[in-house]
Amino acid sequence: MRENFKFNQNSKCEYFPCHKVADQENFNCLFCFCPLYMLKDKCGGNFTYNNGVKDCSGCTIPHGKGAYDYVMSKMNEVIRIGSERE
Fold first, then answer.
1. Which residue range or ranges hold the Cysteine-rich small domain (predicted)?
2. Residue 31 phi/psi, 5° resolution?
3. pLDDT classification of 59: cutoffs 50, 70, 90
């Protein structure tokens, strides 16, 4: 089964790689902006808060092997939060 849609790399991007990694060849740019940011402390990533703002610069979860499957496993929660009315 082909699953090429789960990986995209833009090595010509001026920010590539946007995180320090040991293996640039397998750096996945598919989720350039992490769709799990809105999950706050439930995203599962390695983040900190700086002056009340979530800082994901230490997280490589959306850029590593299995990134697509991990992000998709959290999408029901993202959809639930995004569907809430105030």
1. 5-82
2. -105, 70
3. very high
